[in-house]
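ESCALATION

Customer reports they have been waiting on this structure for their group meeting. Please prioritize. Original submission:
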Amino acid sequence: MDVASINARLGQAASVDSRELDRVCEVVAAELIDADLEPPFRIPSADFGTDPWLICADRYWRRRFLREPTVEVAARCARWLYDHTDDAAIRPDIIEKWSLGYAFITKDTVESRHDLTLATGRIVEAFQGSADICYFATVYHAGKLRANFMFDELHQFLGSSLLAVAAGHHQDDPLFTALRAFAALGSRTITTAHALDLLDTAWDAVPRSRTVVDVCLNALAAAPPFPERGEQLRRRATAAVTEFPDDHLFLFRLACGQRLCGDHADALASVDSALRLLPAIGTRISHALLQEQYLRERDIIEKGLEFTAWTAGQQARWRDQDTANRDLRRTLQASAIRAVELVTVFTAAIAFAVGSLQITLVGTLPLRDRALLLVLFGAGLLLFALLIIAGTWIVSGRHEPDPRPGPR
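Update from on-call: job pushed to the front of the queue and completed.
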């Protein structure tokens, strides 16, 4: 394989549709792997969508990492990238995407501390302690730990490993700080306040790369619950979607934040948008992994919607039952009052009838005195009945349930 023929094939692929471009890049990358050759061409841009040379290099190193998922290959990849790019301005974006992207697809191959120490010695020796090369390898290994949610291991690796120390001034880079924030937010031994300080430092970096935003949002999504976690994720993800409106991953993070805040309807719309925007091109393994995550989140959101609907129905039934119980209590109280009133009036009427009969038939008083006695006796019974009825109304009024909801 000669450079001229490879450049010619990739140059021709630049003018075809995206599927054919992807196919040609995959074929060339596979041929390079089979020939045990690194890509012999140069990278002119950081355009992962249309630059055939960058796409082909991406496919090549993806295959290489799947075959050899080690920090030494990461160092070799970094060396190749620096040797095959003339424009230093395009490197940071490629470095961030490659180091964390390849870590994600090889997350099941975390190297042991012993192997990492030996590999670090060989990397430092082979590349004369280059901070740039060590930084790429550090982010690659850190990306594996991040993908496996190994928070404490990541914190220890970034803070004290020889590879991270060899990264030199890159330890102050926003991505390095964002990874430290990810480790701190997930750790059970680091305070949330300190972790959020690290997150703010990375988030407020100028310029702030898309990868830094991704790691910050991932840190909030993966962190154990803490006050305002859902609102923090929703707020920052909303800003990310505003800045990167067609980014499926940020829509997915927004869906997670909305779900944590109880906005299940909005969360479902966001995750559906993320699924629509998720590219399905060629043999990109990360597509299947991301789609699995998105569909799992969608299932959780749908269950949340169902639970919310069930809860609302239960609350409505409880309200209806409470209203029915209050109506029943009022009916029973009213019936009791009517019964007392009826018994009181009936008793007073009987007492008046019996008393008046005795006064009329048995008494020896003059007619006028007997009439006055009957009037006084009837008035007393009437007053008695009125007092009983008034008392029942007063007592029932005191025990009337308070219709206002909530604690009293």
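Sent to customer with the following note: Confidence is low (pLDDT under 50) at residues 281-285, 403-408.
Escalation resolved.
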